[in-house]
Amino acid sequence: MNDRATHSSRFGAWLDHHGYSIVASLGRLLRKPWATLLTIGVMAVALALPLGLWVVLGNMARLGGEVRESREIAVFLKQDVGAAPARALADALRARGDVAHVELVTPAQALEQLRARPDLAEAIDALGADAAQAALPSVLRVTPRGDELLLADSLKTLPEAERVQHDAVWRKRLDAWLRFGGRAVLVLAALLGLGALLVVGNTVRLDIQSRREEIGVLQLLGASDGFVRRPFLYLGAWYGLAAGALALAVLTAAWLALRQPLADLSAEYGSSFALRGLDPLPAACVLVGAGLLGWLGAGLVTGHYLRQTRPTET
């Protein structure tokens, strides 16, 4: 019974010290606001840069996914190919096994699509509808069923085809740039994360130096390293959490500033693409990761300095 009561009291004291360390470390941050803001600001910049690049790459990958989903091959027919031969060619292509879908866009339909754009409607009216329609060829939009490169090459051999437009090369280049960008984000995140780790470590080291005598007294009284280290660990965690929150605030402000201009730009090109920020789950992971980063930096420094300040046995 006594052992159980002793164990319960020790556990209660352990919890009490954790609560005290959390509150006390936060109080130390608030007592020196300017120095705290400087440290948090440096860490926030180190976190915001790779996060911002990661968000940009995520939006680029989403845009690239939309492009990859559009696997259409545009076959521009010669001017002398009339409506009946164009329909016959479309029917012949639909019968092929490597073709999933064929859509015929006549000059009249293409003219209506162009007229729907405000920047081209006046030019079409000035040119004249008949003249504009006569200058437009019939177009076959072919959706491949299998290998689109082989299909594009075979479509180029059609005698009715004037030009075949296919964006596979552009998509491959985009994928290569996205892979390079993802690797660059990892390298940049590692370097700047190390910088944030060093910032926290140096800040905690200065705090340890100012409390060296207090730490020495605690060690002489038999306090364990965990007891002495705990307030500094929470101090580092507070730095990390605050820096992560500030980095997210900076990214949110940038997203709000760029969202509408990008939406307007996309609308000019007939696209509904919209800039997407961090979802709640990744944002929460950023906060947790930043807190752990601060905790780790404080733990590395306190472990080193506590070994130096530990009293030697005689």
Automatic annotation (TrEMBL):
Instruction: Report the residue ranges that make up the FtsX extracellular domain in this protein.
Output: 72-149
Assigned GO CC terms: cell division site; plasma membrane
Q: Which coarse location class describes where this protein primarily resides?
A: membrane
Q: Where in the cell is it found?
A: Cell inner membrane
Q: Which residues form the ABC3 transporter permease C-terminal domain?
A: 187-307
**Would the keyword GTP-binding turn up in this protein's UniProt record?**
no
Indicate whether Transmembrane appears among the record's keywords: yes
For this UniProt record, the keywords arranged alphabetically read as follows: Cell cycle, Cell division, Cell inner membrane, Cell membrane, Membrane, Transmembrane, Transmembrane helix
- Membrane topology classification: Multi-pass membrane protein
What does this gene product do?
Answer: Part of the ABC transporter FtsEX involved in cellular division.
- Quaternary state and interactors: Forms a membrane-associated complex with FtsE.
Protein family according to the UniProt entry: Belongs to the ABC-4 integral membrane protein family. FtsX subfamily.
Protein name, entry field: Cell division protein FtsX
Q: Which lineage?
A: Bacteria, Pseudomonadati, Pseudomonadota, Gammaproteobacteria, Lysobacterales
